[in-house]
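User: For a reading group we're discussing how well predicted structures match intuition. Take Small CPxCG-related zinc finger protein. Before you show the prediction, I'll give you the sequence so everyone sees exactly what went in.
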Amino acid sequence: MADFDNIYAESNPFVRAHFDCLSCGGKLWEYAIQGQMVCEDCRSVFPSGEIFDAQV
Ligand SMILES: [Zn+2]
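Assistant: Thanks. Here is the predicted 3D structure of Small CPxCG-related zinc finger protein, as structure tokens, for the group to look at:
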């Protein structure tokens, strides 16, 4: 599993997303590996597709 570990060691899996939390309006961070976004304030987790649909 060395290659798996290296993914986390060499790159930050979180990417700042240009979307606001649907619950509290806080800043969302995209968790690219999971295709999810997490709020830095309330820590709610949303599927990325749900965020795109809500804010387009
Ligand atoms: Zn939130």
